[in-house]
Write a structure and sequence with these properties.
The two termini are about 35 Å apart. By secondary structure, the chain is an alpha/beta fold. Helix 2 links the parallel strand 2 and strand 3. It has eight helices and twelve strands. The relative contact order is 0.16. It has one domain. Helix 2 packs across helix 4. Helices cover about 25% and strands about 15% of the residues. The longest helix has 20 residues.
Amino acid sequence: MPLMTSRRTLASTAALLIGLGLAPAANAAISFEFNYLDAAGFGFNDTTNGAARRNALETSALQFSNLFSSIFTESGTLTMDVTGSDDSSSSTLASAGSALVLSGSAPAGFNIGEVVRAKLQTGTDLNDGDADGTVNVNFGQPWELDLTATPSDSQYDFYSTMYHEFFHALGFASSMSQDGSPVFGDKSAGNWVAFDQFIVDKNGNPVIDPSSFALNQSTWDAASVGGASPADGLFFNGSFAVAANSGQPLGLYSPNPWEGGSSSAHLDDQNPALAGLMMLAATDTGPGARTLSAVEIGVLRDIGYTVAAVPEPESYAMMLAGLAMLGAIAKRRTR
């Protein structure tokens, strides 16, 4: 059972939700159950810091659920296998993903079963009670674990990063590897996750043929590492995301060279217009985004999530203004 994972890399709150007109929900729409798999004395089971780390993860899950349910209608209980790592030399802060399933006789299509997304959107458990996904946090980097404290210039925002990772597990991620192969099998099989159907190049050419579900190899090869500027590389052209982005496809992270676990699965860090958004590939120390922009909500709608009420244009403007302010005080990536 492969996992679709995506990672947040480092770059060299409730009050915010209320300020943006998104009051936290009284009851979380998503409940998380965590299986802590670290050995005794390590990671989330560290003798000294383990309790604080587990508390921070569980608090972040509750706050994420409040954020999610203030926008979307889906609900469910998700079981996640959780591990910690301790590598101060790694640029990876955290990673998360959904378990994936596919019938051996499945026809070609955007039909790889994403366990987390299916559970929330249809109520179906595709993996028969096994864990729905995974979360890993690198404790080799300095974190601010207190929800009410402001991360300093030498600390990473644990809550912003966890929200980012939970949204990856919900399906905000591509299943495509560097050569264009999907998670399951070779490229000729033509099986992909929902997110992949919306990936296009700068000219609007889909990287996966919508009729045959075959990879357009030349289109993929050029665009997947073509993001030297915001006008190049890969884009997301789902109708809701495009509508929220002033009618334009939304840039995806597609640097050269390819970055496994980051390329194609995040918004474009090269585009200053997206600075400060939650779903960028990299983040810097200090406060990070703890709510979604209109374009990120659009992506989630395109992959099947339903908003409780479509925000009016003024609400979107308020959200983006709040994020712009946040971006001004918290540099997301060192360039």
